[in-house]
Amino acid sequence: MKVNCDQLAGLLPDFFDGDLSREQSDAAIDHLATCASCRLTVDELEGVRTLASDHGRLELPPESKERIRRSLGLS
Amino acid sequence: MSQRSVQNPEPDWLFDTFADGVYTLAYRITRDRHLAEDVVQETFIKVIRSLVSYRGDGPIAAWIYRIGYREAVAVTRRRREDPLDPVAVAAEIDRPTESVEEQVLAGELVARLDEAINSLSESVRAAFVLRDVEGLSTTEVAAVLEISASAVKMRLARARESMRRQLEEYLT
Q1: Cβ B163–A48 below 8 Å, yes or no?
Q2: What ipTM was predicted for this assembly?
Q3: What is the rounded distance in angstroms from the CA atom of residue A63 to the CA atom of residue B61?
Q4: Is B153 in Cβ contact with A55 (below 8 Å)?
Q5: pLDDT digit string (tens) for A40-58?
Q6: CATH number of the domain at B96-172, out of 3.30.930.10, 2.40.420.20, 3.50.50.60, 1.10.10.10?
Q7: Cα–Cα distance, A46 to A27 (Å, whole number)
Q8: Taking CB atoms and an 8 Å limit, are A52 and B163 in contact across chains?
């Protein structure tokens, strides 16, 4: 099995989830080994996921957390 | 963590474990910190009331985030239907913006990340936040949003591509 750039793009959600079949996974890796443009895209998409997990999360302000805890009757 | 089913979870534990995550989701949907805090409160009122009906037979994160997501969407809809609600407007006006210190700490990268997340449509944003910010599995995101796993993957592909284009300078 071989994939081109468009087909690889269609496989990427499953690629990131580790849900590709062995055959699809091998085809994706083969394509990435020879296509610098797709390699860059995959690296950048990985970068988006890293940025999101490292910087996208928020924390309730402590005073708000305490106020809500009290309103819920929690200790 | 997110995959776990939990038997007889304690309310304190649930709040400590999921309050920030629900707040993150709620803020990303409502784009308003005060509304997001209200969503957290309403969500946990419902969670604690419904604990008896949670049978520990599914991932607890998906159950809690689903309640939070519904609350956040409902609050956002109400605000759209009643945009001149004087209480809401006053809350917006009275609320101070982030302090200078917070702005400096947040930095340009975080500001650009926020901007990029906010530019996504609500449904795409929700899938992205749950999967890539909160770290739920695709199956759990599907359960929260009550859509198929393949629909989640389509939304994620759209979100990540849009984010990649907007944040390109920070990714290389």
Answers
A1: yes
A2: 0.91
A3: 24
A4: no
A5: 999 999 999 999 999 999 9
A6: 1.10.10.10
A7: 19
A8: yes
